[in-house]
Fold this protein.
Amino acid sequence: MKLLKRHLISILIFLTALLLMLAGIRTMNVSTRKDQYNNLEKAINTSILECYIQEGHYPENLKELENEYHLTYDHSLFKVTYKFINEDDYPDVHITIL
């Protein structure tokens, strides 16, 4: 009976530690994704402004930023919607975490 109690206590301690570890990993993952989102947002804005400074107009589409200004991001993690307004107005950009 004593041995069974010890095993149960050991199992409960192990399961508690495992749950805490999994919760920590999930928190880190959410934090990392937010950092990636913020970095992507900065990279897009920097590329848009770089295009405007060099060419005198805003880029017409996201592909131009990817091809000419070397913007890269993980398409499986983020969806970027880019709406060109005109050459003199800042484009409408939305980033969605998938």
